[in-house]
Amino acid sequence: xxxxxxxxxxxxxxxxxxxxxxxxxxxxxxxxxxxxxxxxxxxxxxxxxxxxxxxxxxxxxxxxxxxxxxxxxxxxxxxxxxxxxxxxxxxx
Length: 92
Fold this sequence. Notes:
Layout: E1 2-13, E2 20-28, E3 32-38, E4 41-42, E5 47-49, E6 55-62, E7 70-77, E8 80-87
Antiparallel strand pairs: 1-2, 2-6, 3-5, 3-7, 4-6, 7-8
């Protein structure tokens, strides 16, 4: 799998008391589990990217959220890592 781009969105999933911010990852070349990590960022359950779709949204738990803060992050898939800038959004 090859990661083309990754960007944080202002979209959330999960319960109101534990929202997960979505990261949109564009990819080519196969199916794989995709996660995100970084400073205060974790993926509780990796998303599954499918080869024929090309885009997957990865739910990310953000600790110590400060709306508008930018953090260094990376998309992880297999043994590949792609860096990007994650912007903390406000749920709701």
